[in-house]
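Summary for the steering committee. The consortium agreed at its last meeting that each partner would contribute one worked example illustrating the joint modelling workflow. Our contribution is presented below. We chose a case with several input lines so that the handling of multiple components could be demonstrated. No manual editing was applied between input and output; the record is shown as generated.
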Amino acid sequence: MHPSQWMKIDNIGLYCKPGDFYIDPMSPVQTALVTHGHADHAREGHKHVFASHETLAIMRTRYGEEMADEQQGVAMQTPLTFNDVVVTFYPAGHILGSTQILIEYAGYSVVVSGDYKRRHDPTCPPFEVIPCDVFITEATFALPVFRHPPIGDEIAKLLHSLAVFPSRCHLVGAYALGKCQRVILALREAGYDAPIYLHGAQIKLCQLYQQFDIALGELIPVSEVVDKQTLAGEIVIAPPSALADRWSRSLPNVRTVMVSGWMQIRARAKQRNAELPLIISDHCDWPELLQTIEEVNPTEVWVTHGREDALIYQARKMGYRARALSMVGYDEDEQGESFHGSV
Amino acid sequence: MEAFSELLEQLYFTSGNNAKAALIKDYLASTPDPDRGWAVAAIAGALKFDFFKRNTVKKLITERVDGELFAMSYDYVGEVSETVAHLWPDYEPSVKLPALSEIIDDFMGVSRNKVSGTLANYLSIMTPAQRWALLKLGTRGLRIGVSARSIKQILADYGNKDISDIETLWHGVKPPYTNLLLWLEDKGPKPDISDVLTFHPVMLSHPIEEKHIDDFCPHLWQIENKYDGIRVQLACNTQKAESQKALFSRTGDDISHAFPDLLEAISGNLVLDGELLVMHKESIDTFNALQQRLNKKKPSNALMKTFPAGMIVYDALVIEGIDLTSLPLAERRKKLQDYLTQTEKGINPRLHLSTTLFAASADELRALHQKVCQNRAVEGLMLKRLDSYYVPGRPKGKWYKWKRDAFTVDAVMMYAQRGHGKRSSFYSDYTFGAWQDDTLLPIGKAYSGFTDDELKKLDNWVRRNAIGRFGPVREVKKELVLEVAFDAVHTSSRHKSGVALRFPRIHRIRWDKPASEADTLETIVSLIDT
Ligand SMILES: [Zn+2]
Ligand SMILES: [Zn+2]
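What follows is the complete predicted structure of the assembly.
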């Protein structure tokens, strides 16, 4: 039986009827399978949650120990059954603990890839190509204008700026889960071993990464710095929302750095008042989306989460059946950007 | 080229005029001639012609990228140059790009049929940021928040010179400004521009306030009609071996090529300030008629015959080679009047002395304003102090404009489109229509007049009420009434409604008003210029 007859979208999320579970539901359900910890995928209050151990830990960090009645950590590549449905989790390469979910039923297979990327990321195992009939893909950066530069080049810009403006506090706006840690690791990889200062919102998740043996080097909460003037010439990482608020006014001679895949479009970077936009993304760029579709080589592509029309158009041009999977909470347009997780 | 691109990149993302000025001065100090002069010209908008046409760029990209994907990308990015910069498929990095001046020389020297190939070659060795810089430079579309005026100020600061020196020199020097820059650095003499016809920065007026009208004192003021044309400066010196004539716009753009009929008849050594209009002998045609001329870089004889250019002269900066700017208006006016009515060179069917009007009191002045505004060729009144010297810029308390009240209509939003540049993520350009029986006909487009907050609300409304898409244009439910202000209505064959509004802007958003109560086309037609 074709998956379009047993997978459906309702106002909660993607539902698998024979297995009676939701994937990344937006409101509390009986059984939820969660691909990863970003808030547009992982919500609290479910009866029963299945997710990677890291994702469960992230959810507990964000929502507290009681985030779901029952929490079941899932091992990668180990099949589980829900009635007649076989479910297997695979790495997605997006952030710590991120997974794709393979669903097999009635002779068909569906891969819900969640958010994913193909670049090297030291915080998570790489995306795995899983052959399937229906591949459900995100489309966050699904326009041919999006071609993310190598992360090393972007980090070099930040280090260059520190050299040119040694007395300015470099305030880096980066989403607290995934992006922040990736930036820290890339700085370390580039040889930057000075302490990195954190806004309060970044601390818990960085500590969690450290518990999973990801070495982030010396991190200091900004709140523990008595004389904020000493932050001149240092790197401070804060959530993008904190860049413009009162909190940042205590920092000396701020230079605003924004880290996001959207920074590639100058008008957007300008809108965010970025003086130094860095293009670093935890999603695929356009060539990687196409490469992934080719490698997975499904018979059908369902597109969600972003610029659906362009990717559907291109997938069809490449000879695949393709259609939009309009999902609740997955806003198709910019309104979703701020709400959407690490981009 | 790398340094130029880097400069633009930094200017683009830097806010604050001082920081921008510092970046430019730093660039001037560290970049050799002639590159830096070309950069100044590009930023100041002083390049005289496109190195390549927008169409060439579009053609190159459509040969390389799927049309649908280009359209979707453009819709998202909001700007052609940047879209192309990102979409360009080939990239073979070169160790060092040619200098900016080499690239410019290349485009200036290349034959027409090779422009496109030259451009393609350059795009293929550049990063997206460098491509963007080249495309913006070549199509003269740089907008990085540095005005022509502020670049002059920056040059003055850079060389520790007076801004008025720079302004006077500006139209006498040409890119790449090598002499100017050397003079600024005290490495060369002041550029000699005595042989060049230059633009004299014009004197501008302030909007009048109620208190000025109350205090009106008839013997202090010269009153004139405010004409609905464009402000021009006519400069001419036919007494030299090589005679020179030029017509400048109020910002100093040389628009001579579009008005040979006006210039042809002029002789003498003079600089006149006035209004350019289409005039049939004494009678003034509409702004719409003038528009026909403004749109044509090289007008045909037929067009010039149908829409002959004329000038209503209201001031003189130079007559018979003598500078009058330090005389009071009353004396300048006297000399101008004598010249235009009594001298052989001055009497000219294309030049008309601006009529002065009289009001004996504030009340009479108000009545006069009301009266002149009934004439649709007039936009209101000008009040100028009789003792005012001709001072460039906008000196306080000297000249006032008293415009006609704007018209307003209630129209219904029909389509919306994303804006450009900073606004590219908002639906900020709105097409609105008026009723004819029970259908709406589009009457115009507006993209200003609202606050940032209102823009967000409008954008949100468009997203929630979009019902169709035509390329980048979203059709919306015909439910939102916009109160649109505008200065005039003209007949137009370009619009199905047959009308075109002048300077339409959103006056108010009528969230409260049902669309069925918006105005009819008939109402708007009744306001048409006659
Ligand atoms: Zn995510
Ligand atoms: Zn997501």
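Confidence is low (pLDDT under 50) at residues 327-343 of chain A. The CA atoms of residues 151 and 280 of chain A lie 6 Å apart.
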